[in-house]
Fold these 2 entries.
Entry 1:
Amino acid sequence: MARQQIWFVTKLRDRWRELVRRWRIPPTVIDRARNRCEVRLLDVCAYWGSEFHEIVSPPPTIEEIVLVCPPCGNFLRENPEWAIEKGLKRSTT
């Protein structure tokens, strides 16, 4: 990996660790969602959530993080226009 890529990955990892420490993200979001995917796309959803999706990056509050299943998470990453239209992604500006 190039030096810049390593720096970027390290920065993201450190930011995520800080969010977990500050807000205790996993227990809070998982309890709110009851281990279920909060997006629930028809014909895509696997029902049980195991990934975290940030609506705004970096999230200003814990409500800007949702629990998603891997298929729904992949769909959101592959279709950013659809996610913006449905309110599951916003820009910070």
Entry 2:
Amino acid sequence: MNTNAVLVPSHNRSSRIPKFLDAIVKNSLISDICLGIDRTDSQLDEYNRILNSLPKPNCVKIMETQSNSMLQSLNLMGSVLSKDYKFLTFMGDDHIVKTHGWDVELAKPISKKFGISYPNDLIQQEKLPTAIMINSKIVELLGFFGHPIFSHLYVDNSWLEIGKSLNNYNYFSNIIIEHEHFSVGKSKNDFTYMKNNSGEDYKKGLEEFKLYMEKYHKKIITKLKFFEIVYRLKESF
């Protein structure tokens, strides 16, 4: 069993999976990869066919979820896998890993302290963790990877604020996990992008982020800091 699980929600994008898997499998050292696919996804059979046709290692699997929402699928996978792995990593199916041993390096600064680590995605870079590794205990304690108040956008802003408030957020400019997003011409626009990236979606996401910071963030940080102390005390005996 590896120590990191990479959680990749995907919907009607089976064509992206071969390139994604080729890059992440050859560049990972401590990671299992879990694709979260809605069980009603019209391309579910194609996802399975692709995995079965590739010379894949045992570290790649599909988890059938009950939603085509990225965040809901991510939270379902996180709740199931948080007890089996030390670290959990979110990536989109449009992230392409280009740095060998990326997972070992991201894990180092959060191996003994709650926090976040994130790579250079060549778009947002240090500004936002569009791909992110966190301690699995965070997900286990909170019951979610990304706060359910978010529809989609701005959840990565909340992850950055959690890292900052825990005094342990780590950006690696030398670790490249390229975000092949349509907004910069690295992917073709599709339904998944269109349903989450309108002007109204950004307005809604910003409102959700403001509400998150006002109502939930402080409580989350207080809880995480308390339980981190508890875990350290347990390990000292």
